[in-house]
Design a protein that fits this description.
Layout (H helix, E strand, L loop, with lengths): L7 H15 L8 H12 L9 H13 L13 E7 L5 E7 L8 E5 L10 H13 L3 E5 L9 H19 L4 E6 L1 H15 L7 E5 L10 H9 L5 H12 L22 E6 L5 H13 L4 E6 L12 H15 L4
Parallel strand pairs: 3-4, 3-5, 5-6, 6-7, 7-8
Antiparallel strand pairs: 1-2, 2-4
Length: about 325
């Protein structure tokens, strides 16, 4: 009996099944993590994403009173400076005070659904990387939706990354993004590849949301348990960011883009995050395209657990530091 070649769709299905068979880590969540999840459910964060109207009202208020993006919570031992990019964006640079001119580079892209500014928790995470991984972080303050949309932001971020790779010389450059920042990072490296430029040395994607329609049946079920997010608000934020593009466009939903030739990926997500199926599909598509990928999928962990003050969060941060410190000049 002859054996025919399997189709790309069949290969993707097989790779997704193999990823699911290996993940998630079924360790019981720590008591600290369970307490954090309980606290998150008491906060009003999820209500802000309960409907399209709630998101529209939130964006209207931010337009009247924009949030500050200036660094806060960096603590001691971290130097910070700011420049303007070619795009006119403020771009902050942080480094360890002990070795300000030595280290690999990190392009850090913050989350917030493309409608929220970088916040204190992001800056604390940047400071942690600067101190513990010995990296020089580059943090662009990209404009927010609906005033700016994917059509303009993705190519601009790709060009900023191209310039950083050019300036870095022999130093390693890794893109680190959380949530919406992970979406933007993946879209930017796809743009970079399509424009004929070299890839960064790696991608670290933390709780990525990579498909803006958020339409899987399993996500509707997970949303009931997710303490932070809800589907109607996420879809509305995605619609604002898409602008004139379709939600399925790879600039908006980079899970739909081509994965061939992309940089190696390290991905972190948790099963209380309604976006975690994106990470499973990401790992499967990367594997099918021959891209090295390491998926850390933790049982009972919420969105952005890697930045939280829990044992699971500390383990994730330690893993990220190991990825970033490899090849330190």
């Amino acid at each position: 009996m002859s054996v025919g070649k399997i189709s790309s769709a069949q290969q993707l299905r097989l790779d997704r099944e193999s990823v699911q068979a290996l993940q998630p880590d079924d360790a019981r969540p720590s008591w600290q993590s369970r307490c954090i999840n309980g606290l998150l459910r008491l906060l009003p964060i999820k209500k802000r994403l309960a409907s399209a109207a709630a998101v529209q009202e939130h964006v209207r208020r931010l337009a009247l009173r924009p949030a500050s993006y200036e660094p806060t919570g960096l603590g001691r031992g971290v130097e910070v400076s700011v420049k303007k990019s070619a795009q006119g964006w403020p771009v902050y640079h942080t480094a360890s005070s002990a070795h300000p001119g030595i280290g690999n580079y990190v392009l850090f892209l913050h989350g917030g659904g493309f409608i929220n500014e970088i916040v204190r928790a992001h800056w604390r995470f940047v400071a942690y990387l600067s101190r513990h991984a010995g990296v020089r972080c580059v943090i662009p303050i990209f404009p927010l939706a609906p005033g700016a949309t994917a059509k303009d932001i993705v190519p601009a971020m790709g060009e900023l990354l191209r310039k950083l790779l050019e300036d870095a010389g022999a130093a390693k450059v890794t893109v680190v993004g959380n949530s919406a920042g992970a979406n933007l990072g993946l879209a930017a490296v796809q743009w970079l590849r399509d424009a004929g430029y070299r890839q960064p040395d790696g991608l670290v994607l933390i709780s990525p949301g990579l498909e803006a329609s958020v339409s899987r049946a399993e996500q509707i079920e997970i949303a009931v348990r997710d303490p932070l997010q809800d589907i109607p608000g996420l879809v509305e934020a995605g619609r604002m960011y898409a602008g004139e593009l379709d939600l399925a466009h790879p600039y908006v939903s980079p899970l739909n883009g081509d994965f061939h030739g992309l940089a190696p990926m390290t991905v972190f997500s948790g099963t209380l995050d309604l976006l975690y199926p994106d990470s499973v599909d990401l790992a499967a598509k990367a594997r099918a395209a021959g891209v090295p990928v390491e998926l850390h999928l933790r049982h009972g962990q919420p969105h952005n657990y890697a930045a939280m003050p829990t044992p699971e969060g500390r383990q994730a941060r330690a893993a990220i530091v190991r990825v970033l410190a490899q090849g330190l000049p």
